[in-house]
Amino acid sequence: MRCRLSSGMPHILFLLGVFLCSSAVPALAGEVVAETPETLIMHRESEASFPAHEMEGFFSLGYRWSDLDDSSRAAEYHHPDSSVTAALDIAAYPLPHRFNLSTEYLCQRDYAGDLGYAYSDLLLFRDIFVGVYHNLDHYNYQYAGAASDPSWLDKNSSDNYYVGVFEEFVSLRLKASDFPFHVFLKHRYLANEGNVQQRFMIGQHGDITKVSESREVDWQSNALTLGANSHFGPAEMEYSLEVNKFDPGGNSILYDWHPTSPTTGYQYPHDVNPETESSEHSLKMHTSYTGALVAAATLGELNQKNNFSGTKSETWRGGADLSWIPDPDLNFFAKFRHQEVEIDNPDYVRRFVGDADNIVRQSISAKNDLFSLAARYRPLQKITILADYEFVHHERENIAEWRLLPESTKSNTLKLSASFRPVNTLKIKVGTDYRFVNDPGSNIEPDYSNKTQFTTTYLPTTWLTAFLDYRRAKTVRDNTAFLNSEPDITVNSGRRETKNDKFFSSLSFLFSPESILTASFAHFRGEVEQNLAYGKWNSAGTGDMPYLDQEVIYVDRADSYALSLNFSPWGWMDVLTSVSYTESDGEFQAGISTAQTPVPLDSFSTLQVAETVYAVEISKTFPSKFVVGLRFLSILFDDKNDDTQDSRIYISTCTLKRHF
Q1: The pairing of beta strand 448-461 with beta strand 464-484
Q2: Mean confidence (pLDDT) of the chain
Q3: Alpha carbons 110 and 374: distance in angstroms, whole number
Q4: Residues 6+ apart with CB under 8 A from 579
């Protein structure tokens, strides 16, 4: 099945579809199930002994009313149009046949489906498709009092932006009748269609324009995988070939006149979405999973090509895994990974016909090696200890023209964690990891990092459950550096430090088997402290040493409160209610006057928003297998810095369901 639609569905349904895709065909991961003629006979005898189930399922019809006020921020993953809704769920098992169909339609851009068929263990087919609609922000380009250089231009200030995404995953697996030999096929199709905001700068010093314009996208991506797996003596092997192609559609390149030469007869191409293609060969092997000692190995070759620029890359991958379980309470694991990437790009490019050769730096090729050792030990029934050491070596080639990049980077990581139950009603997990990096490759890569975690679940009574999770991460870079163009000099800018704190807690009260109340709170805080460098140009258009802003702090914060109540007041009616409130803000404060005039630079990063969500769902079941359902959803979005982004959406849905 192949659809060509641009549609939308709530984000959670999209994640569900991705999860189903990843688990659709277990044998596709290269794990061949060990079978013998005896197990095949037992399987078919047990299959014949099971009664063939009649078809069962449900269908539903309804209507969805949607009312959107102001902007679309409140309806980020909701289509604003009202529509008829429908759903169909069928499951039939007249063995050896097995069939299932599950579909849901909310509107023309909001739907999902899952179709599956199997014949004994010889044929397995799955088709999963999901439509998702995503409303996008229209960033404001009309800044009052902005400087004359650069100037600002929004060519489509009243346009609304969105992307409709359609994804489909089809898989087919065939098996030999009396031997564990499989051939399989997988196809993934992804289409993005919509209208997005394209932003770019054009011009030169003294005459620069920041432009915003609408751009239609019609992207299509196809990935086809063919493969086979089987037993070969004591080993199991799988070979697969995967071919990918991305088609950016007809609007893949934008063209504009350069302000200084509009009469040359040529326009400059920019913001290219290139057509790309790739192919990958993979060979996987492993010994039997039933022994105390298990080994696995993977070899792969990946070839990629950019059809616009002509750049090509070749990647070789290899890996080995070894696990040893001398005792159920003591396990050891070893892992090795090796990767080599060779990139070949053209020596020069021409922006238009008649243009001079523009030299292109040679892309960086690299070799990566990873080695890790891990152990799991359970000294007591209620205590489990995990330890993991990892070493990574990253070696770069062709870096002569890439200043500030080291030839190699090495990192060492140590992870420790433990989980235990002091009493039957209390479970605790703690963990920490330390990472040390020699010669980091970029300013945002730290010299040192540390993460800690504490998680606990407590059940003091049968009707109360408490959960708490806290995570903290810290990174430190002793010295960062910037490359200044004019004059050509390296500027050492000092220390960079980040801190992240995440906290989540919940309380659940089980008043009865039909009634449960849950309250939760989540908090996030992220902080970055570093020196910033602002480019400096003289009035003559020549460069100068940059402005340095010392110890600038950027902070992100978010707090979320939620309360939900599910109950069945009379046994034949179910009620689900929930309310949540989330407040987020982020800001940094520039410390030098140059970054404050004529428009404060930090004003572009200031964020302060709040979102309130109310949801109520009521369903009543009748003796005739009919179910009537009512759903109400309200989302209120408040941007405290930009009233034009404030919005509200109200969605009401009425459905009539019939089981059969």
Answers
A1: antiparallel
A2: 87
A3: 45
A4: 562, 563, 564, 612, 613, 614, 615
Cα–Cα distance measured from residue 184 to residue 193, given in angstroms and rounded to the nearest whole number: 30
Closest CA to 398 of 362, 360, 369, 368: 362
Phi-psi region of 13 (alpha: psi -120 to 50; beta: other; left: phi over 0): alpha
**Alpha carbon 591 to chain centroid distance?**
35
Cβ neighbors of 100 (< 8 A, separation 6 or more) are 90, 91, 92, 114, 115, 116, 117
Alpha helices in 464-517 (DSSP H): none
Pull the structure tokens for residue 352.
């238009």
pLDDT tens per residue across span 450-477: 999 999 999 999 999 999 999 999 999 9
ω into 259 cis (within 30 of 0)? no
Which pLDDT tens digit goes with each residue over 162-195?
A: 999 999 999 999 999 988 899 999 999 999 999 9
Do strands 426-438 and 235-247 pair parallel, antiparallel, or not at all (unpaired)? unpaired
Does the CA dihedral 483-489-493-496 come out positive or negative? positive
10 Å CB burial of residue 593 (0-12, 13-18, 19+) is exposed
Q: What is the DSSP string of 345-413?
A: --SEE-SSTTPPPEE-PPPPEEEEEEEEEEEEEEEETTEEEEEEEEEEEEEEES-TTSTT--SEEEEEE
Q: Is residue 43 left, alpha or beta, with left meaning phi > 0 and alpha meaning psi from -120 to 50? A: alpha
Residue 289 token pair: 């999973």
Residues near 520 by Cβ (< 8 Å), separated by ≥ 6?
504, 505, 506, 507, 560, 561, 562, 563
**What is the secondary structure of 224-256 as a DSSP string?**
EEEEEEEEETTEEEEEEEEEEEEE--S---EEE
Give the DSSP per-residue string, 548-590: EEEEEEEEEEEEEEEEEEEE-SSSSEEEEEEEEEEEEEEEE--
**What is the DSSP secondary-structure string of 98-148?**
EEEEEEEEEETTEEEEEEEEEETTTEEEEEEEEEEEEEE-------TT--S
Q: Is the dihedral of CA 287, 293, 298, 299 positive or negative?
A: negative
Element (H, E) at 47: helix 37-49
Sequence-distant (6+) residues with CB within 8 A of 226 are 183, 184, 185, 240, 241
Residue 401 token pair = 């023209």
Report the C-alpha gap between 660 and 656 in whole angstroms: 13
Q: How confident is the model at residue 138 (pLDDT cuts 50, 70, 90)?
A: confident
Amino acid (one-letter) located at 381: Q
What is the greatest pairwise CA distance in the chain?
A: 89
Tell me how far apart the alpha carbons of residues 357 and 342 are, in angstroms, rounded to a whole number: 24
pTM of the model: 0.84
The helix/strand/coil state of 419 is strand
Residue 593's contacts (CB-CB under 8 Å, 6 or more residues apart) are none
Q: What whole-number distance in Å separates Cα of residue 183 and Cα of residue 179?
A: 12
* Per-residue exposure over 134-170, b if at least 16 CB sit within 10 Å of its own CB, e if not: bbbebeebeeeeeeeebeeebebeeeebbbbbbbbbb
End-to-end CA distance of the chain: 27
Strand 182-204 vs strand 83-93: parallel, antiparallel, or unpaired? unpaired
